[in-house]
Design a protein that fits this description.
Number of domains: 2
Distance between the termini: 28 Å
Largest sheet: 5 strands, mixed
Helix content: 40-55%
Structural class: alpha/beta
Oligomer: single chain
Radius of gyration: 21 Å
Length: 450
Amino acid sequence: MSYSQQVFDDLSARYAYQPEFLQAVQEVLTTLQPLLDKNPVYQKNKILERIVEPERSFHFRVEWVDDKGEIQVNNGYRVQFNSAIGPYKGGLRFHPTVNEGILKFLGFEQIFKNSLTGTPIGGGKGGSDFDPKGKSDNEVMRFCQAFMLQLHRYIGATVDVPAGDIGVGGREIGYIYGMYKRLTTRYEGVLTGKGLNWGGSLARTEATGYGVVYFADEMLKARGQSLEGMKCAVSGAGNVAIYCCEKLIEKGAIPVTVSDSRGMIYDETGIKVDVLKQVKEVERASLTRYAELVPTAKYTPVSEYPQGRNAVWSVPVDAAFPCATQNEVNLEDAKCLLQNGVKVVSEGANMPSSIDAINAFLKSGIAYGPAKAANAGGVATSQLEMEQNAGMTAWTFDEVDAKLFNIMKGIFENAYETSKEFGEEGNLVLGANIAGFRKVADSMIAQGVI
């Protein structure tokens, strides 16, 4: 039995109740064996056994009062996974599905994603099972304040720097940061995704969506192709999806779908980004509202999706950008995309494809950009925000965007060259995993058993 399989089997026995975490670990460990065979120093130093366990994690109760004066109780978490190359860095997710296993999967992915950016940040993740949907601004504020009342003990500008994730946008970051400042009396870059008037970075909102398109473009350039004229399927309707659509249009491509938890929009004439922003960023409404405003848009509710499928991936397209959530692309979805002639898949969400779907994409030979490489633009720009905060300065949008492009180009080149090094040229799953792991593992060895 291989070293990586041995470690995975042991982990599976202990955490069988955390399937998303085990899926994330399996996806990484199955690609590392060529490196482990070549360099026995990693097994000698028990790096796999150490890297799959968080350095520390916190679970706390969050008590808050709703608009009716009733006390509500939620769970709060922060998983500080690995700090070998820098302070913990990773978003906060507010969603009813949040639990320790979900955050461990996200934090584990974050280790290697952050490593790939080339910036000095470690991996972490946090959040709560609180659902901001349907809550008033005052309820969201009271929850965020109660959440930070607990979280502030464990974070700091050179310790752990959270950001936003699903359910945590500019509004939530503002309330969370305000409470941190009140509790600590420190005005520092302890959170990223802040407002532009109080330490935020230009291009941070756009970064993940722009980055996933930059990565797709680099994959296609390596094959002598381009995004121009390509019809594209995009899932999700949050920051990542909105700005993925915006950058696709700038590149001459045509995004034709977006989706939310209730249904999807298909518009063969192209998604109208200005309307999408109005519906999701201003009105915070369902995509049914988008269909009301755009006559060419067809709305399909989730209830009409094929059983166990995401209807977004049934639309014949040249390129696919999963930008919603984990495991939104299963094997049947992948087969449908491939049968319809998809040429490139670039992942904007965290672990959006099942392992079977990933294997189908790799076997087909299409350009496939795994999440930890393709969606690293958001956290990379968060680190650029940290740099600006530390220097008490602010860069222009074009400066930040240029740095983001160079980071995404560098990630592609690193993953591609690493895939060549290990005899699987173009397999960016293997290339990204080995490149991200090697930097962290070497740093862990250099710092000793701590």
